[in-house]
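Lab notebook, bench 4. Continuing the backlog of folding jobs that were queued last week. Each job is logged with the same field layout so the records can be merged later without manual cleanup. Today's entry covers Uroporphyrinogen decarboxylase, a 81-residue chain. Filled in by technician R.K.

JOB TYPE: sequence-to-structure
TARGET: Uroporphyrinogen decarboxylase
LENGTH: 81
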Amino acid sequence: MNLALVKKLYGSRIALMGNLPTTSVMLKGSAEDVEKAARKAIDDAGAGGGFLLSTGDQCGRDTPEANIFKLVEVARTYGKY
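JOB STATUS: finished
OUTPUT FIELD FOLLOWS
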């Protein structure tokens, strides 16, 4: 899903959540990949509020702990708007 487009079309009427790929980024990616994807999601959908940063589905049991912590760190430091 293109978060920026959905935010533009519907952002004033709905809340958006997610869009960090569960497998390619959270499970198999590096902490840097998580940071890049999380910052992009915030950039694409955060302005004006109504966006909850999260994975696209869930975090699998083998998701690296470093990736989960990185997601929380990015949300705390970059997600304030």
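OBSERVATION: The chain has four helices and two strands.
SIGNED: R.K.
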